[in-house]
Predict the 3D structure of the following.
Amino acid sequence: MGDNWITDMTHFLDERGRLPERYGSKQIANHLGSIVTALTTSPSAVPQELSLSCRRRPKRKACSGKIIAGFEPGTSNILWSCPVCDDRGLIHNWQNTFWDKGERIGLPEIRKITYRFGLLDDIEDEAGLKVMVLTGPAITKEIVRMIHDNEILGATGFYGDPTVGDPLQIDKLDIEHPGGPTRITLYNRAIMLFTTNEKFYVQVHRVCCAIDKR
């Protein structure tokens, strides 16, 4: 019977996002990374057999199985298994590692993004906010991928504390897509990144930075 692996791919990497030269689990990292590479090169909505042999050697003999892998329904986790020896696992936090080749299934159709941002003395006066509108080719695949990977479309609402900053930092994202508009207002994003451990602020921060680069 095989093992059951739960793997965070970032645990293999150093602070530069690279696999250290001297690393005891390098073979395992590259094996699991190859699964990520295969699925993000040619993604499929159903599990598929990869041209990747199982790495196990039960009774010191190479397993004859080929890895079967796919995306866990409803999440971005990758599930994989060997049908011969029953080695299996779940891979998460693989996005934006060097194994990630950028292709996805189910990327949303983003029709328009309106991004308002800036510093205000009065929360009621938004005239001082800068406005950036993206449509058509200006909505790059990188931006769409980040919205998808960070599950931004389901995050409509107000976040952060408008009372902790003076002046007040505001980020407003309006994303138009076939499922209806997603409207996110984030107060004092920079302060929240330093004072909370909530993953959401990091996610929105990444999307805002990607849009701002446009």
Summary: The longest strand covers residues 112-120. The mean pLDDT is 91.
